[in-house]
Structure to design on (490 residues):
């Protein structure tokens, strides 16, 4: 007998939009404006959300911040258990990170291992003045001492559940689903 | 999601179209590492790579060594003059002795075609072919395809002319295997003494009677080096005559499509297979090939490390 997976929408499109708008305001408040601020999204979900946050910041402040993306495949800590190796995605940071206030963006914060890898990747691109972390969902179960500065929604989950942000073909966030 | 499940890369003939696409796409994204200040990622930390080169090489050996180092692997180079091969040790014995030092990858160049297949049966680590006799040179085939894809955005439907000593060219064989799988049409030209019998059976390959026929309307013109170290003395009267019939020069280059890519696997015999004017001209992508070589070899090292033991 097949076991049905239970699928619950925990955040819809307008909910995501409101959360990202609030995160944008919090980023501005904490950094006192857009000076020296850059966004770097983690491939692939975080990269899409970074663009959404940049749009939102532009609406509020009337100025575009630089947006980059980082692929963490080459910085993973689980190569031994990853056979065959995953294909390597695109890292595109076309501006200097030296002395910048970097807001790292990811869709779901879980063990923290992705964030560790992303921070190592950023350090190889230069020495930012500060790195902050913005995530749409924090689902707990950290395995490293990492916490987010800006959180869209805290979602208590069991380790067996799966949280996923669904994007449209045009990389716009549609909904957040919890599967168990 | 495409997957790469091989532990060895010996010939492009052994790889599927999807696996070749995966290697090229990984290489495209590896280039970002090579373009920044800190040209290193921790991916292959703790892995040991032995570069075992039984034949002379500057480009390929340096490129594999840099690729390994940029992925944080430890690389060791062994060349014939400094190895026990000069003392009469067999290839199998050398390999087993190296294996006792627990390398993860052996990158080998050897004058005997197929020696890598022999070696891969003897050792448990990954084997990458950096050129075996007149058989294949898969990293060169991949970097050639990456360079073409950069220019045209695709490989499907391209007309690629390969001109020169096809018989002795492992580069030509890897290019033919790779390009025909990816949907390009390959046209070969060279003196009849340097054209292997049955070349047209390799796939979507046309053997042309003259160089003119091969390069007419070509998107890519790949010139091969005259391999005088492999040839006997009787394959051509002299280099001047060769150059007149099979050399690329400012006149016959106009037969190819405007803006056609001019490529050469190096090292170049200036004035023999290509005039200096062409080597240094706008259409020449020879140094771009070398640049792409590092990224392609990073992709190969990365994917064989994730391959399963067969």
């Amino acid at each position: 007998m097949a076991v049905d997976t239970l699928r619950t929408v925990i955040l819809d499109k307008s909910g995501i939009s409101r959360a990202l708008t609030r995160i944008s305001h919090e980023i501005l408040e904490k950094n006192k404006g857009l000076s020296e601020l850059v966004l770097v999204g983690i491939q692939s979900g975080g990269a899409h959300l970074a663009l959404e946050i940049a749009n939102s910041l532009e609406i509020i402040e009337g100025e575009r911040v630089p947006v980059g993306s980082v692929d963490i495949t080459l910085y993973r800590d689980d190569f031994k258990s990853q056979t065959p190796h995953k294909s390597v995605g695109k890292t595109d940071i076309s501006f200097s990170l030296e002395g910048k206030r970097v807001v790292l963006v990811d869709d779901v914060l879980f063990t923290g291992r992705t964030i560790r890898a992303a921070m190592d990747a950023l350090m190889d691109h230069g020495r930012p003045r500060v790195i902050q972390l913005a995530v749409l969902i924090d689902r707990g179960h950290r395995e490293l001492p990492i916490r987010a500065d800006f959180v869209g929604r805290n979602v208590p989950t069991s380790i067996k559940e799966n949280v996923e942000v669904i994007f449209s073909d045009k990389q716009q966030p549609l909904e957040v689903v919890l599967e168990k | 999601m495409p997957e790469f499940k091989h532990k060895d890369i010996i010939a492009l003939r052994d790889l599927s179209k999807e696996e070749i696409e995966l290697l090229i796409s990984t290489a495209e994204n590896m280039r970002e590492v090579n373009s920044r200040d800190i040209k290193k990622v921790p991916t292959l930390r703790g892995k040991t790579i032995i570069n075992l080169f039984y034949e002379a090489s500057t480009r390929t050996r340096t490129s594999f060594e840099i690729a390994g180092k940029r992925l944080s692997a430890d690389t060791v180079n062994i060349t014939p003059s400094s190895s026990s091969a000069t003392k009469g040790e067999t290839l199998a014995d050398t390999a087993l002795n190296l294996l006792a030092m627990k390398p993860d990858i052996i990158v080998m160049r050897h004058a005997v075609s197929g020696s890598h297949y022999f070696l891969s049966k003897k050792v448990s680590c990954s084997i990458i072919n950096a050129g075996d006799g007149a058989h294949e040179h898969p990293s060169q085939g991949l970097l050639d395809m990456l360079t073409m894809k950069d220019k045209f955005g695709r490989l499907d439907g391209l007309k690629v002319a390969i001109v020169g000593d096809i018989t002795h060219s492992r580069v030509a064989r890897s290019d033919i295997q790779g390009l025909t799988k990816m949907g390009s049409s390959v046209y070969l030209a060279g003196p009849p003494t340097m054209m292997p019998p049955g070349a047209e059976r390799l796939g979507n390959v046309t053997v042309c009677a003259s160089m003119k026929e091969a390069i007419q309307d070509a998107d890519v013109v790949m010139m091969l080096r005259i391999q005088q170290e492999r040839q006997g003395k009787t394959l051509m009267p002299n280099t001047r005559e060769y150059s007149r019939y099979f050399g690329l020069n400012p006149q016959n280059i106009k037969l190819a499509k405007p803006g056609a890519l001019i490529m050469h696997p190096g090292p170049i015999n200036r004035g023999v297979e290509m005039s200096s004017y062409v080597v240094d001209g706008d259409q020449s992508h020879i140094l771009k090939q070398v640049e792409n070589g590092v990224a392609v070899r990073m992709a190969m090292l990365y994917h064989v490390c994730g391959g399963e033991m067969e």
Observations:
- The CA atoms of residues 21 and 56 of chain B lie 30 Å apart.
- Chain B has two domains: 12-136+293-305, 138-290.
- The beta strands of chain B are 48-53, 74-78, 105-110, 126-132, 159-163, 185-189, 205-207, 220-223, 261-263.
